[in-house]
User: What shape does this take?
Amino acid sequence: ETPVHKVIASGKVKGLANHTVLISKDGKRRQIADSAAPIRSGDGTMRGVVLVFRDVTEEYRAREERLRQERMVRIAGRTAKLGGWFVDLPTRCVWWSDETAEIHGMPPGYSPGLEQAIEFYASEYRERIREVFGACAARGVSYDEIMQILTASGERVWVRTIGEPVYEETSGGGGQDDTPRIMGVQGSFQDITSQKNLQAQLEQSQKLESVGRLAGGVAHDFNNMLSIIIGSADMALERPGGRAPDIRDNLLEIRRAGKRSADLTRQLLAFARKQTIAPVVIDLNETIGGMLKMLHRLIGEDISLQWLPAEETWPVKMDPAQVDQVLVNLVVNARDAIGGVGRLTIETGNRHFDEAYCRDHPDFQPGRYAMLTVSDDGCGMDAETAQQIFEPFFTAKEKGRGSGLGLSTVYGIVRQNHGLINVYSEPGSGSTFRIYLPRVEAAATDRKQPEKKTIPTGSETVLMVEDEPGLLNMGKIMLEQLGYTVIAAGTPGEAIRAVQTHAGAVDLMITDVVMPEMNGLELFRRIGEIRVIRCIFVSGYTANVIAHHGVLDEGFHFIQKPFSRKDLAVKVRAVLDNES
Assistant: This one.
């Protein structure tokens, strides 16, 4: 129905209508504002209608563009959790945009009084916001602050609030009254909680990396010294003089102390992700199921252990010994948190994380993961403690009840295997540790190895290469006691010359990884040009010469310092017999 029809029907003027569309001669659509008025004779009879068209296409497009931009701004504000606000100083009235109200947990259209708005800030920030707002209102000093508010539901939210003065327009006459007067304060308000959490995670990760590098270096030096201590104690125990009761007790105590120290350095290496691992494809249900008896003994009779395996878990690639380390540390931690009668639950499952989930959880990568969960109903911990539990030597236990390395070991192992670990805990409500390990597309392998009950011996010729004189001498004596002929070399150059001049066979080389002149891998290749030889690499930790991020390259044999006489004997015999 056009304005003309309306005029004819009503006899009255009908104003502009911007919804009329006309098609011009060139075929383009034009937005038209049209109006119509009656034409009357002297006696008032309507004789006709006058119709006026006005092309408002450009005005229409400008209005549509403005509306589109306003919609985009609203969407961007909701997405970025960014809102606006204004305070009218004479009336002290506050206006909040819908986004600002939403950040505070209030419904759209809500606008508080000035003092009420300040009360939303956490108590430790209220004095500061009054100070900066007052300076802005009185002297025009803009501000940009990071603070915390308490929403209507009591949740703490990090916000960035920006304020700037709004001046009253002046007449421009040049008199004293023309000085601009501040009539309000306006600004923006943004929820930055997720950014603050990301920043905290990055800082924590960087701190752990720095501590890890330090721990790895210290552990390397310790392992060299511990190798001499443990090895010397083993050899002394085998001598006739070492069998006297008083001397034997002292030697056994030395060896026990050495092994306890070796365990600590091994945990440091695990945290630093510098321990050597030989991953295989495993089934978590099968691996954990084989540990249950041992775990029951660890926690005692007062704590009930629930084992809740998923019907089927996705296979993962991991060193089975590391699964043992992870579970033992988590179970011991749970036992200590319970401190008496309680319940501990071990559970497995499968989880799939999509890209949407990973955008909100930056540590996660999209993909499929096998999950291991260890939960307890112990004392739990607060958020501040939970942020520190993976740091080496941090412990919330009583003095003398823990080294502070258990959970840092778990963290290092999980990260070395490209996994993720989360902890959920509240004081008095227990703790839950969830570990996610990447799924691999392969079948699990049998991890059972026959245990060697006796120390194997041999008669082959072994080339021992070690730049630490004490370790070289100790290794030579150990191997000779086992029946081997030993060629000792303190440098790679000595080793090459010994192989070139030795008339008989050289069946095996045992070499340190990091040495002057050249590393162990380069030495192995140089000697391989002279004669075919098997090789065992030895190190306090494995440099990337023979491993990548601590993962042993396939086909290489390795023994970790410090090692006992039995460790060395078993490894040498296995390599010579092609058993490993």
